[in-house]
């Protein structure tokens, strides 16, 4: 039987009287893309630092590929690519020098691989890391995590500072890693960041696990705010009793509501009137958590 890439049981971490994590259980299969979701302060970075043995838990058990991170040593670390949430890069070294130095620690990274990733992420390797913007430093961190094709990628808020085009290219890298059989453990507070690539996600808040979700099911269940502008006056009664529609109001010729689940009935009813515009937006992640699990 294949051991999980990550197994956590009863993980707890206290900083003095503050509980950063409380009795966390989770398991990530090898080859899975796993979203670790929650607002800032939910305990995501603390969990990641424990997985990497950068800090020690107050209680609980942690295994990475069946090994306690405290005992895995260099052999286990070579199997992991890590992108921290806060990158500290200073000095006069160029990005190429830094990445070449890091590649030498693994001994299995051809120079062409670094160049290929730099082109993909639009990174100037000749630039000194100490003069780089946050976004460019993030690109260096992504390349460092991916370049040796590790068995496990642990990524903490990976698209911070990236523009939308590069965010999509990053997600393409995640999909490529999955196709290669690599495991990806991705922390984020942005739901859309994991929707395109993750198989499952756990939802964290204030150091506690709220729930584990299949990402596609989570997307379908997520409430959306809908705004529809019509070319004629409409009758509120036509929409008031539709399944999945709540918080309905009509101002002038614009309908506002929140939908949960399927929206087929709403849009079929709307199509009976002349339409000017339709806008559908997902709520922020924390609002969605409250909607699904209660405050």
UniProtKB/TrEMBL annotation:
Membrane topology: Peripheral membrane protein
Statement: the UniProt record of this protein carries the keyword Glycoprotein: no
PROSITE patterns reported for this sequence: ABC_TRANSPORTER_1 (PS00211), ABC_TRANSPORTER_2 (PS50893)
Domain of life: Bacteria
Keyword Transport part of the UniProt annotation: yes
PANTHER family: ABC TRANSPORTER ATP-BINDING PROTEIN (PTHR42711), ABC TRANSPORTER ATP-BINDING PROTEIN NATA (PTHR42711:SF5)
Record protein name field: ABC transporter ATP-binding protein
Annotated organism of origin: Nocardia uniformis
